[in-house]
Amino acid sequence: MAATDRKPILISGAGVASLLLGRALLSASIPFRIFEKDQSITFRAQGYRLRLSSEGLDAIEAVLGPDGFPEFWDRCGKTGGVGFSAIDAITGEKFPDDPAATPDKEKKDVEAAGSASKIIRETLTSRGGKVLTLGVQVGISRGDMRQVFLKGCESFIDWGHQVVGYESTASGVRAIFADGSKSIEGEMLIGGEGLYSRVAEQLSGGKLKVYDTGARGIHGQAPTTAFKALGEGVWRAVDDSRPNGRVFIITNVRPGDMDDPNVEFGWTMGAQPGVIRPPNEDYTITGVVAADIAKSITKEWHPRLRPLFEQMIENEAAFWKITCSNPTGVPEWENDPRVTVIGDAAHSMTPAGGIGANTAVRDSALLGRLLAENGGYGDGVTAAYEKEMRVYASEAVKTSYGLAKGQFGVEINENTPTIRRGVRTA
């Protein structure tokens, strides 16, 4: 990074959106510091695999450029074959591709989704010299994505620093940490620390709410051999046989990794409210406890699917809550020229449709471009970013919620509880 007398741009959190923004600032020779509460990038489980849309790939390519994007592209898995398929978890039979022929509980899902079909079943533009056509899925694990985005930013990250707020100064802003200490003065502060963002809460005066839908999930990993009976494709297995509600999993089986003993595939289980019950709703309990619940739920599933759970790496299992921002869209708040938010801090989404990460990287690309064009802080940068972000992010939240109503049976209303930002317990 070129030497400069300008104060750095401060970024809270070292998730996908924050690291990609760091890469954008690095390319523009704009000084920055990232503050992350974890002790390292591998400090905790990285979550499930992310499916990328054309918009998401375009945003990443715009930031990484012709020198950096090929490395990212090579780390992505490309699943062709049958593409996206839904099967009955009990019988193992594939549901028809025609949305009108899917189970009744799925019809509302399809109808409410609107533009989601564009995200789930789209024709991707030319990548790596090839045109990826309908049904091809491009995905990457969250951990791999963070590792690629981290490259070049390592010396600009302060690990073990949890941002719990900020204070404005005469000519900048300082982040406030959990231990009461404060950061160096920065030109701006970008809140990118996820669902529990204290920066988002302070900036919006509480308008940026995240709702706890009551739906729950479990993420797990298993050796690639456990997936051979499924074969290549992006699979969604649905179990409507349980009296207390629907359960389903999504997994991505990539043929190129099928016989590699050093590779594990992941699966993500979701369930309607009341089906998955972590002990005392304690989401810090992971490993065997989560694995045993997943095995119990799936013990009657078809033999094609049971190896995913019987052979799972138990210490990799983890619970997760299914949350969502206000489905009416990203609210407006009084603009602060020196503070804004990106990613889940600005717009939390359900996992339905795989839209959240794609929207987060669009934030990074947009804000990074505006900052690069201005050479750093400028009076109109956050206002311009927030105006454009609200349009595409509001549409994405509505789509994600519409899908989740069908898949998870959730409903957000005036009685739906909100999570407490800054608190990572139940």
UniProtKB/TrEMBL annotation:
Keyword Aminoacyl-tRNA synthetase assigned: no
Pathway this chain belongs to: Secondary metabolite biosynthesis
Cofactors that this protein relies on: FAD
Keyword Flavoprotein: yes
Signal peptide per UniProt: none
Keyword set, alphabetical order: FAD, Flavoprotein, Monooxygenase, Oxidoreductase
GO MF annotations in UniProt: FAD binding; monooxygenase activity
Domain of life: Eukaryota
Ranges of residues in domain FAD-binding: 157-398
Protein name per its UniProtKB record: FAD-binding domain-containing protein
Species name: Xylaria flabelliformis
